[in-house]
Amino acid sequence: MIDAVTVLTIVLMAAVTYLTRIGGYLLLRDRRLGPRASAVMEAAPGCVLISVIAPAFVSDRPADLIALAVTVLAATRLPMLPTVLIGVATAGLLRHLLP
Amino acid sequence: MSPPDGSLPFATPETASAPPTSAEVRRGVTAATPVLLGMLPAALVLGAQAAQKGLSSVEVLLMTSLNFAGGSEFAAIQLWTSPPHILLIVAITFLVNSRHLLMGATLAPFLRHLPKRKALPALFVMCDESWAFGLADAKARHAAGWSPAFSLPYYLGSALSVLLVWATFTTLGAVVGPFLGDIEAYGFGMAFPAIFLVLMRGMWRGFRAARPWLVSLGVAAGVHLLVPGAWYVPAGALAGLAAAWLLAEERG
Fold first, then answer.
1. Of A3, A10, B3, B210, which has fewest CB within 10 angstroms of its CB?
2. Whole-model pTM?
């Protein structure tokens, strides 16, 4: 039900996340960040998210690659729910139609 | 996420005394409601995916209520193994959430009237949405002449409703997920890329600002093809950060 290593990981995640929440308030409130530090911080979440899903972009299943292209297109113009539905439906359908 | 716009349903200070706390809380919950509905599918998918990776519903509840930062939780679950790579997951969590540092810094001027014993707990529930609501509201109230401009009950109304819905529906996803069987076969593997791409669309600041993302994608994809394991994540992320650092020089 509850695994010690899992809970430790979750508690450490929560701790570093809380540090980011109070760190800006405590340390940066009277400081101006340089353009480089700001640029790195602004780019960081997108860099991590795209890295995590990068394997999907080099999948060896044509069905998944086509579905991903459709999903990218949907994500540029639709809200979360329709994008997820379109992505999942396209992937499910193409997996049955294509080898 | 861009700050919410729209009219502000409070009277100007010239015409009325400060609104009661309960009305301010309700105003925050109302502002957050459309966001709450949009969160539901992502929350259910995260919970179901976490259950498939072997997390119990109690562990999912712990993660989403204590960490309470969706992007990092999606990344962590995607990378989850049994047992988990603690250092990798904690480092990725920090990187995904490093934007909080900037968010806290921009909010700080509006929190000066609050003692730290109130400000520090309030910051525990600062997420993309509650930050955007609280900051936009404080700016509007400042322009309207209110002092203090920052309404703590409004901010907490929006922040706590997001926390409640997020924690509840991720846990629900973990409870019902196992009954769905192997969701991958129905194409559910595409749910995560879809969610991540919509999250990134919300961070989009034009093509120039997004060039580090392309570097991350290229490096992560390459490393994934060449090196076994999860090394592609730190490799791609660090390559993107290095690109952001180098490309920023052009501006300054």
1. B3
2. 0.79
